[in-house]
Structure formats: C-alpha cells, structure tokens
C-alpha cells in the first residue's frame, strides 16, 4: 500500500498550490479520502475529506472553507487538494489519509506560505 503526496512547495501569501496523492495497493474507489496537516508545535488536524459514496460528499475545516477544494479521480487513483488564497497560517506538512476498514497515511508534503 502506498500513498504518495506531491505538489507542495514555497508560495507567497495569496498564491495557490495543488496537492496530489497517488494511491496504490488497495481499492481506492472504496475508501474515504482526506487531507490532514500538521504545523510545527501543533497537533495534526483535518483539512478536508471526500467520501467514497454519496456522490463524493465533501467536508472542510472552517479555516479553509471557500479557499480549498478536495476532489478525487477514481480512474487515476488520485485525490487532490486545490489550495487558493493561501495564508502563512496554512504552512504545514500536508498528509493524505485513506480510511475504510483499515487506514493508511502518506509520508507528507511540505507547504510553506511566506513572502
């Protein structure tokens, strides 16, 4: 099983990034997928999630509503996080998470928002 995140980097405040998480080794379409983040000295927190059923309903942390969009492509076994209007408070390591009966974590990708 692998979850491989990509797309992180350094961006100025107000900028955008698109994170990708490529999954392998399990039936991706059957898993609820989420993005979490962890900033230095803080606990890991849920950023956004997307269901495997129910039309792929989504859920967002209040801090990112209206700025971030989670989506999935089951044909490509990939989940995305489009991040717009980035703020310095969005700086963190972003992790991909898959959950059904078992759960899996990616290794994380660093996002730094700074001028």
What's this model, at a glance?
By secondary structure, this protein is mainly beta.
Give the arrangement of secondary structure elements.
Layout (H helix, E strand, L loop, with lengths): L1 E5 L2 E3 L5 E8 L7 E7 L6 E6 L7 E3 L7 E6 L4 E6 L8 E8 L3 E3 L3 E5 L2
Parallel strand pairs: 2-11
Antiparallel strand pairs: 1-3, 3-8, 4-5, 4-9, 5-6, 7-8, 9-10, 9-11
Could you walk me through the main structural features you see in this protein, from its secondary elements to its overall organization?
The protein is mainly β and 115 residues long. It is 0% helix and 52% strand. The protein contains no helices and eleven strands. Strands 2, 4, 5, 6, 9, 10 and 11 form a seven-stranded mixed β-sheet that branches. It is globular, with a radius of gyration of 13 Å. The N and C termini lie far apart (37 Å).
């Amino acid at each position: 099983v692998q979850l491989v995140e990509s797309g992180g980097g350094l961006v100025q405040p107000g900028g955008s990034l698109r994170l990708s998480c490529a999954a392998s080794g399990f039936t991706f379409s059957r898993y609820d997928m989420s993005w979490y983040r962890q900033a230095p000295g803080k606990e890991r927190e849920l950023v956004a999630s997307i269901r495997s059923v129910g039309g792929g309903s989504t859920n967002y942390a209040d801090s990112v509503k209206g700025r971030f969009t989670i989506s999935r492509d089951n044909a490509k076994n990939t989940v995305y996080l489009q991040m717009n209007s980035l703020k310095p408070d969005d700086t963190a390591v972003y992790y991909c998470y898959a959950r059904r009966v078992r759960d899996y974590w990616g290794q994380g990708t660093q996002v730094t928002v700074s001028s």
